[in-house]
User: Fold these one by one.
Assistant:
Number 1:
Amino acid sequence: MTCNAERIKTILDGVIHPETGQGIVSSGIVSDIAMQENGVIVTLAFAKQRDPFANSIKRQIIGAITAACPEYAGRVVVTEREKPAPAKKTTVSSTASVKHIIAVASGKGGVGKSTVTANLAATLRDMGYKVGILDADIYGPSMPKMFGLENYTPQATVENGQEYILPADANGIRIASIGFFISPDDALIWRGPMATNALKQLMHQTLWGELDYLLIDLPPGTGDVHLSVVGEVKVNGAVIVSTPQQVAVADVRRGIRMFQADGINVPVLGIIENMAWFTPAELPNNRYYLFGQGGAERMAKSEGIDFLGEIPIIQSVMEGGDSGVPAVTTNPTIKQYYRAIAERIVEKCNKEA
Ligand code: ADP
């Protein structure tokens, strides 16, 4: 009997895959038989990435063909079809369900960036939006204290086979803070890649759910964390916080330029002047501009960005920061300043979108 392709096919179907008990031709493992002038090439396609029986099957094929067709002895080649690379498990960032991501930045520390983030979040919530805060200030995470969450222990959960971190809920504001994972004493050793990696995880793995606004409280200045945040998620806009003293300082301009730089291209929504003036309790109609008036507005103009509004120095703002409830919740005066600023931000975000 001549050893043509048909005959070889029959011979090969006598080779049984031990797991299925079926012949390797009828079960589709043999994908091709190529009769060459002086040999035969059998191509196999196993269903599994690594079939444990592959080698023994290859040996059996060679044995079976050479037994039936001795003219092919030493001229049987068995190959495996190249398998497509296994589908990489893509991790869907939990920020995918967030409509607007806003970074809150400042040139220097202590200007009230975190206070502004917390109060803006509470204002947006009161306006009916779903709001979250990512506290990315790895050098001084203050959201736990501002929302009375110092003892909060983050919980993990699994959804659709993916592991997530549950954000804390502060009266409807979803909060994830790097501070939940480190004690203030350890903050100093959290520099460089360790901190940015932890932050990336927090960014992508917090179960934010549907959010209208996610505010990211960045560390002061410009640095690795800023680059890592803008590199990881689509930041829709940046808000710069400054005090009258700090507004003329180069750090603020540097901060603005960083967001505007090529390759970063985050629209700067504008600047907020915090601690703009002081009103003593006994003289409620007096405004004392201790560090000059209108500096932030002038600076915004010269930088070609918007001035979003000003917030005075108010005793209860300081107390709000310590009491676990943002001042806008209890102080109607401060609430109106924040409301005006939040409305401008919402309007700008809707335009940018
Ligand atoms: P940053 O995040 O820029 O480092 P914080 O938000 O921690 O600054 O604020 C620094 C301090 O200033 C805090 O004690 C805070 O309570 C206080 N503070 C911020 N804004 C005001 C304000 N408008 N009036 C009074 N105190 C304020």
Note: The mean pLDDT is 88.
Number 2:
Amino acid sequence: MRTEQPKMIYLKDYKAPDYLIDETHLTFELHDDHTLVHAQLVMRRNPALGSDLPPLELDGQELELLSLALNDRALGEADYQLTDSHLTLHPDSASFVIDSSVRIHPETNTALEGLYKSSGMFCTQCEAEGFRKITYYLDRPDVMSKFTTTLSAEQHSYPVLLSNGNPIASGSEEDGRHWATWEDPFMKPAYLFALVAGDLWCVEDSFTTMTEREVALRIYVEPENIDKCQHAMDSLKKSMRWDEQTYGREYDLDIFMIVAVNDFNMGAMENKGLNIFNSSAVLAKAETATDAAHQRVEAIVAHEYFHNWSGNRVTCRDWFQLSLKEGFTVFRDSQFSADMNSPTVKRIEDVAYLRTHQFAEDAGPLAHSVRPDAFIEISNFYTLTVYEKGSEVVRMIQTLLGAEGFRKGSDLYFERHDGQAVTCDDFIKAMEDANGVDLTQFKRWYSQAGTPRLQVSEAYDADAQRYTLTFKQSCPATPGQTEKLPFVIPVELGLIGAQGQALPLQLEGEAAAGADTRVISIDQAEQQVVFFGVAEQPLPSLLRSFSAPVKLSFPYSRDQLMFLMQHDSDGFNRWEASQQLAVQVLEELVGQQQRGEPMVMDQRLISALETVLADEMLDPAMVSEMLSLPGEGYLTEIAEVADVDAIHAAREFAREALAQALYAPLWQRYQAYREVSRNSPYVAEAEHFARRRLQNIALSYLMLTGKEQVLEACLEQFEHCDNMTERMAALAVLVNSTHTEARAKALASFAEFFKDNALVMDQWFSVQAASTMPGGLARVEELMQHPAFNLKNPNKVRAVIGAFGGQNAINFHQLDGSGYRFLADQVITLNALNPQIASRLLSPLTRWRKYSPERQALMKAELERILASGELSSDVYEVVSKSLA
Ligand code: B3K
Ligand code: ZN
């Protein structure tokens, strides 16, 4: 908890460290009621900064100092200064050794940062600033050290003892304890340190690298989960091969380990050689994990593995540079997932997520640039902007340089900076140097927050056969940034003729027509692009593959959007046309609802989706994406003032209208696919994911018709399927239906069968917490009384409270303010237990400016109540105070 006014930390104040730590030797004595940590730090004055000897200020929090020595000389209280965040001592030579012993209490650590216990095992989470809760240290990423770690624990309860690097020695003691020593040959910052001790089993495999080295692969889990590791292991091997083939990156240690833990604040952590994962991001098998969970496991395993180069071998100089490793690594994992599955579908999913969530962040009170310039609590900056927009920025570099140029740049980056802690500027410089280009203006993407708008208009001169597109870019003000300079916006585009054919493109200065899809770099506030030799009035296909994270507008008519859905050669833009058409139709319905008029659905959306559904050649994954109407979250984001009730009513009305009109083809698809699922074993691969996805979307539409045969089919699927994907989908539609009896029965039998599987119960919780049926808050409060609920477990908090606040707008935004009050109460409780989780839960309240004055007042009042509730963690304080500012 905060004892002083929280301080803002600025990028402009960055200073290199006064001292370096060449070697770090750690000894952990793990006990059930305390842990002793001894640290020996081999240090020296940073030679780059001079030869004087300024005071040495080590970071340390919640540590009980037991002893301290400088060069073997024990220090007394007069020799150092101790506060609750620092230990200051006074070196008397340029090279010296510090020995410290501290006592810590992992057994009562509910913040899940530093060393803590989860389901009886010891584990760590040090990024960003958790290592300072383990020992006194220079806890900053630009201090890199060679670590040796010895851990000892009681052998019976903790047979497995792990840390980073390679195991070099181990032994038993007479008192029933044992120990192991690990040595990591690579220099690393403290945030990549990890330790695990527990009663774990492991699945083993091996990987032969591109230079024929054997690497042992191990996934450690609690014994009852040993049957759920194969998918993660397969994903790991695919990732290792992919990174060799795509980026020329080889793994560097003799062993790579993943450990699954049940209590974890996020998805996973890339500690060197010893990745620690939320069990939800490792464990997957057909019977207990959905297709989406399988895909998430594959993506997170890949993401953490890819960090070994983008993050660990080349790390961040300071935390303002977080996107250097996170944006780049998200980009790398998205390329990987695209290659393993369908690139178009992966792009659609990423863009839908970005536009719903990151665009909202970028338009709200917590908007910040990809490289922020100030923060109070770094944990609050593991954001969609740093991760997802950061990935979009890297993607734009690739679009501008081409795949080959980008690879040259990444090769140079890894070669030039291996073993260093660097900045986003260093990344860009490598891209520039490898390609002989100047990215100075492009770098505004790192420093300017907010989502740029790109307005496009057209003019066709039939006589001159000239077609002109005019681009106007602007960017709204964000906190602390009123004036924005033009961005470099790569716009990938093509022109389409009346027969649906791609028109040849001839730009100014070109003697003849060239490729029929181009990347045009828009770098001025207003800019014209002229196409020559255009024989007919074209329809432009703009921002193909969503080539830049901007809000594009072009005055397409609904008929033109239907035309693009049919004829655009870019798969992403065919989907985009379907979404824009649906947005126009839904916005019209919202207006009718608000005016109290009867809602009347534009038949064109129905007939467009009918065509999609009738196309047997179309990838079922694409059909699914097109059939999925824009979510309430996205409709909220694009609305000036979001009318929660009207948006929900309009979208439900449209879904029902589609279900009625398309009943026959949906029913036919559903039955055919269910038949396939019934007669073939579950396979965790893209084409099977796609089939089940469409099957389940069809089922959710069909249920809206209330037909008896659909309910029967739903129950048949729920009871007789062999996998969680079909079971969960059937349960979800029952939970959101008016078949109260069937719903209660299904929920009860599901809980009875899966009561001992925490991850399955998380799904059971969240499907109910997200149910838009009336009475949501009462349901959520009841769920929190369920024996399987536990406020100290982040997965449970996310499944119940997170799902209610984030995915259940109609219940959360009840006009009596009860949803807001509930969420604020939970934040206040969690603030004391786990500040990072408390701060994340706040997110729906931070968006208060989006809603009607009535709701705004209620939401604001809850934020104010939190602020006044007592001693706040820096995490919660920062989010609440910035939201109210
Ligand atoms: N690097 C970690 C995130 C750590 C978050 C700390 N609050 C996971 C990842 O992005 O790979
Ligand atoms: Zn990451």
Note: The first strand starts at residue 9 and ends at 10.
